[in-house]
Amino acid sequence: MTLARPLTLLLLVATTLSTFAVEPVTPLVLPFFDSADLSPRWADDSGEGPAPGSHRIGDFQFTNQQNQTVTRADLLGSIHVADFFFTSCPGICATLTRNLKRVQDATEGRDVALISYSVTPRMDTPEVLAAYALRFGVDNKRWHLTTGDKEATYALARESYFADGLKNQGKGSETFLHTENLFLVDAQGRIRGVYNGTRATDVTRLIEDIAHLRAEMQDTATPR
Q1: pTM
Q2: I need a surface site. Which of 17, 151, 153, 223 has the fewest CB within 10 A?
């Protein structure tokens, strides 16, 4: 009789823990960023204009630090994080790159890519980019540092990524592009997050949001 009460309590605790263990976790639904004002919109938004999520990153063709061609097709099917930088930048670019290294180290797997577009492609040759990649511990299999046509780079930055917001929208490469923003893009080429890449807290939130996008991808791929 003396063992019955403790045994009953143990069974009750085990049942309670089991109940908590199978409790489903509600995933965070990330918004879409479809315009240069970088205002978040959710899939159930209603009103005028295109539906949230209709904007996609446009086509491009650049060369990376390994002298390989990189296109939009290479990123589709994977989550990617993008920024715009130049190797001779005396200010924020090194901070952005170090924080992207954090993202690289925290998101092992080929389903997450990183891409850094040089805004001074004439100076940032593949050889210069290769040395920069070595300096910062870039994983060449997952992280592209790109160079290419300057006009194409600036058009991609402002029309596809809305890189510097409304400030220089519609301007060409004669207006220098310099932004601290990091962009989270889903496997379909839609912008799902914008972060200040110089702030540790924003980078932590970016890493967390990548996990949510991974869960979203798995949920979409699961047969119903």
Answers
A1: 0.85
A2: 223
